[in-house]
Amino acid sequence: MNVFIFAALIVLILGVISIDSQLRLLNSKWDRWQKEQRRSKEDT
Predict the structure, then answer these.
(1) Other CB atoms within 10 Å distance of the CB of residue 6
(2) Lowest CB count within 10 Å: 1, 10, 18, 29, which one?
(3) Is the pTM of this model over 0.85?
C-alpha cells in the first residue's frame, strides 16, 4: 500500500511539473504575440 501511495505521489508531481512547463511555454508565446501586435499597431 505504501508503494502505491509513493507511486501516486510521483505521478502527481510529474504531472504538475509538465503542466507548469506547458503554461510557461504558453505564456512566452502569448508575450511574443502581444509584442508583435503592439508593434503592428505602432506601424500603422
Answers:
(1) 10
(2) 1
(3) no
Residue with cell 511555454: 25
Distances (CA, A) of 23 to 9, 17, 41: 21, 10, 27
Give per-residue pLDDT as tens, 1-44. Answer: 799 999 999 999 999 999 999 999 999 999 999 999 998 888 76
Q: Is the dihedral of CA 27, 30, 34, 40 positive or negative?
A: positive
Dig out the grid coordinates for 33 from the structure.
504575440
Tell me if residue 34 falls in helix, strand or coil: helix
What are the helix (H) ranges across 1-44? 2-43
